[in-house]
């Protein structure tokens, strides 16, 4: 097995390698003066099972599109140099939120990205918590492995919460995701856990909808989402929970993008805590905001997944340890 990390061996890459018990293999990455670039493995990949870790959220002045192109070129290079299998390991996979046409002539970017991965000979794409897992799986004709942090989140909820507990979705589209976290909390605690949902409609980045469903009075509420970008969706749901009598309100998301700084999310009195994973770390936030942020590490989860993919183990049992 070969394990490469593009963009430098950051903390997450080192954590994944440590969880597997291997060293990251060396990569040459060069940027040219005109903006072009090249990357190549510095060890042989012939007949190897190759895993390429890349963090594709915007960072270090590079856009998700820039970083995706670098990854695609490197995957193709490994294939061209004889790799037996090539797996793209992308903790956050961009362009997945647009998986269907909602307006005339809309792009379906999830399918276009899938086509690009397939075109360079990718064997598998492994990621954590895409916006719509069913759409993700249907978009790709190569193999996919969809991981989630539901049990990691459930364990953290159990350590924070006082009874009663409610797991809430900030919109109707996230009800299934919140339901899975709720079930994981019930497995951990052996107690009933409530559910709630906020109505949301979005048009040209304008959010509307005021209906709220669920009993949150006197409860610790955990609003669960896949991504926190500007934080506006979470803030609306948090304010509704407080208006309906919640005791404490926390936000939990797999990917903390925090676009534009997400200032409203960190304002005093909105949330009692914000919990995300390290899928897009390090975060670009003011120091006072970072102090209010709790980060769940995913290195062991992703390392275990890679080890099972390489050895033919069960990903389902990894994600559902109580089965």
TrEMBL record:
One of its GO terms (molecular function) is ribose phosphate diphosphokinase activity. Residues 1-121 form the Ribose-phosphate pyrophosphokinase N-terminal domain. It comes from the Bacteria. Pfam families: Pribosyl_synth, Pribosyltran_N. Its EC number is 2.7.6.1. It comes from Devosia salina. Keywords: ATP-binding, Kinase, Nucleotide biosynthesis, Nucleotide-binding, Transferase. It catalyses: D-ribose 5-phosphate + ATP = 5-phospho-alpha-D-ribose 1-diphosphate + AMP + H(+). The gene is prs. This is ribose-phosphate diphosphokinase.
């Amino acid at each position: 097995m070969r394990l490469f990390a593009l963009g430098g061996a950051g903390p997450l890459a080192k954590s994944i390698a440590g969880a597997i018990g291997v060293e990251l293999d060396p990569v040459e990455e060069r940027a040219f003066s005109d903006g072009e670039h090249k990357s190549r493995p510095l060890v042989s990949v012939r007949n190897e099972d190759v895993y390429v870790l890349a963090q594709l959220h915007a960072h270090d002045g590079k856009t998700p599109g820039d970083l995706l192109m670098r990854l695609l070129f490197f995957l193709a290079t490994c294939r061209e140099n004889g790799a037996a299998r090539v797996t793209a390991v992308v903790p956050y996979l961009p362009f997945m939120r647009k998986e269907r046409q909602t307006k005339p002539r809309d792009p379906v970017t999830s399918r276009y990205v899938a086509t690009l991965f397939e075109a360079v000979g990718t064997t598998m794409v492994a990621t954590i918590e895409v916006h719509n897992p069913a759409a993700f799986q249907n978009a790709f004709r190569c193999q996919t492995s969809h991981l989630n942090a539901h049990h990691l989140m459930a364990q953290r909820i159990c350590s924070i919460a006082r009874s009663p507990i409610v797991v809430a979705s900030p919109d109707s589209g996230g009800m299934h995701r919140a339901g899975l976290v709720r079930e994981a909390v019930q497995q951990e605690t052996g107690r009933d856990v409530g559910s709630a949902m906020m109505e949301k409609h979005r048009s040209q980045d304008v959010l509307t909808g005021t209906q709220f469903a669920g009993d949150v009075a006197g409860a610790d509420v955990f609003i669960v989402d896949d991504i926190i970008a500007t934080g506006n969706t979470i803030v609306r749901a948090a304010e509704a929970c407080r208006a309906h009598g919640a005791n404490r309100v926390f936000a939990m998301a797999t990917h903390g993008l925090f676009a534009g700084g997400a200032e409203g999310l960190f304002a005093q009195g909105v949330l009692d805590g914000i919990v995300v994973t390290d899928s897009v770390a390090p975060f670009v936030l003011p120091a006072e905001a970072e102090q209010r942020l709790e980060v769940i590490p995913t290195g062991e989860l992703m390392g275990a997944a890679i080890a099972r993919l390489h050895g033919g183990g069960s990903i389902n049992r990894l994600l559902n340890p109580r089965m």
